[in-house]
Structures are given as structure tokens and as C-alpha cells.
Amino acid sequence: MSYLKKYSVLVLLLSVFVPAVCVSQTNPPPVAMPTQQNKIIVDKIIEAANYKTYFTDYCLAKINATAEKEKWNDQKTNEITGSINFRNFRDAVYNMFAFYNEVELEELLSKYKKDSSYQTQNVITANKIVTSNLEIFAKSLVEGRYVK
Fold first, then answer.
1. What is the end-to-end Cα distance of the chain in Å, rounded?
2. Mean pLDDT of the chain, nearest integer
3. Whole-structure pTM value
4. What are the pLDDT digits (tens) for 87-128?
5. 122 CB-contact burial (10 Å; exposed 0-12 / middle 13-18 / buried 19+)
6. What is the torsion angle, in degrees rounded to the nearest 10, for the CA atoms of residue 49, residue 84, residue 90 and residue 88?
7. Which residue stretches of the chain are H helix?
8. Could you tell me the keywords of this UniProt record (predicted)?
């Protein structure tokens, strides 16, 4: 009997302490972001590409479509519209440019400034990840998650 008790105690102790010692998962890596200098250039690209206007127009279109579909009153529509803020979405755009170096960003900026066709069909709106993130953001916006 004592033989069985010893093993029972050993199994019990191992089952308690082994999970505490073992680490099965690690934290995910942080989101890639551009350097501080590159953020300045990305901000200039956002301005040159008129992306804030595109962002606002896209959000307004989603809000207006939902308001019409769900028959919102003017107060709710105005409240949701007032919660549009590019700062809440800016990191998604920064992440897209995280792997560009300063020379590539400067070159892209100069193309946006010189050629107006880049302002309507630009790399930001053509990026599927940013477009998907914008769709998710607009859905959250319409659900009222950014209303203060």
C-alpha cells in the first residue's frame, strides 16, 4: 500500500508543478511599425495621396448605407459620423509601410506629388490588407465602438 501511496503523491506533485514550469506558448511579436523618421514621410504620403479624404468618404458611405438600411434617426447617424477619426486607423497604414526604407518612401512620396494619377489609384487603397482593415474598422465604426 505504501508503494501505491508514494506513486500517487509523486503523480499528484508532478501534475501540479510541471505545468507551472513548462511554458507552451510565447507572446506574439509586436506589430511592425516604421521608424520615427519614416512615420514623418508616411504622414506626408498620406497627405499627398489624399488618403484621409478617402478614409472619411469610405466611412461616411458605410455609415449612410447602414443608417438607411436600419432606419437610424438623425441623432444616431450624427453620433456615429462624429466618431470618425483617422488616428484610430493610422497604425494600420503605418504597418503597411513598416518594411520600406527611407529611400523607397521618399521615392514614393515624390511620385505622389508629381503625378496626380497616383492620388486616385494609390498603393494604400490597392493594398488588400489595408483595405480589409478599413472594412473591419468601418464595421466597428457603424456598430458604435468608437462613440465616446
1. 67
2. 85
3. 0.75
4. 999 999 999 899 999 999 999 899 888 877 766 665 677 788
5. buried
6. 180
7. 2-21, 36-48, 51-70, 74-82, 90-96, 102-114, 117-120, 123-126, 128-142
8. Signal
